[in-house]
């Protein structure tokens, strides 16, 4: 059985490219609907709230709250074999109401984590030993400036 291909995210992709282009500049951005002022994540061609199509990529403060996490011990694709274990996390983003971002948590021991902990993005190169190239991605880490 052949392992599935694992491409890097494409900054030119119409729906998610704005996220990756912002991350390349160390910014966190999400589509905001111009009609109803709602953030739309995960990106869709139209706003899931009002159906509007006037979506603008909007930068927000790269900070939030830890909503959930899990320690990944088994590489689900060969590209991740040299990265386990790692902490997969869901972060509620402060400046984007309704947005929960699936990300990776770094610089923290799982035994020290707590729901509601304050976290902040650090933009790091996303690389895989099985894939050429890299993109920058927002990984989150505990925010020492803010105590939950």
Automatic annotation (TrEMBL):
Regions that span the bilayer: none
Domain ChsH2 C-terminal OB-fold, first and last residues per copy: 57-124
Phylogenetic lineage: Bacteria, Bacillati, Actinomycetota, Actinomycetes, Streptosporangiales
Name of the protein this chain belongs to: DUF35 domain-containing protein
InterPro entries associated with the record: ChsH2_C (IPR002878), ChsH2_Znr (IPR022002), NA-bd_OB-fold (IPR012340), Thioester_dehydratase-like (IPR052513)
Pfam families, A to Z: OB_ChsH2_C (PF01796), zf-ChsH2 (PF12172)
Domain ChsH2 rubredoxin-like zinc ribbon: 20-55
């Amino acid at each position: 059985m052949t392992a599935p291909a694992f491409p890097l995210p494409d900054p030119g992709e119409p729906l998610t490219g704005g996220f990756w282009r912002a991350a390349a500049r160390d910014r966190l951005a999400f589509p905001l609907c111009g009609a109803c002022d709602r953030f739309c994540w995960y990106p869709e061609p139209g706003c899931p709230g009002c159906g509007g199509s006037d979506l603008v990529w909007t930068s927000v403060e790269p900070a939030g709250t830890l909503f959930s996490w899990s320690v990944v011990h088994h590489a689900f694709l060969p590209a991740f074999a040299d990265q386990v274990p790692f902490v997969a996390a869901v972060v509620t983003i402060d400046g984007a109401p309704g947005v929960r971002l699936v990300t990776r948590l770094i610089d923290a021991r799982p035994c020290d984590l707590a729901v509601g902990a304050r976290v902040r993005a650090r933009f790091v190169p996303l690389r895989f030993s099985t894939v050429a190239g890299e993109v920058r991605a927002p990984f989150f880490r505990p925010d020492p400036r803010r105590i939950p």
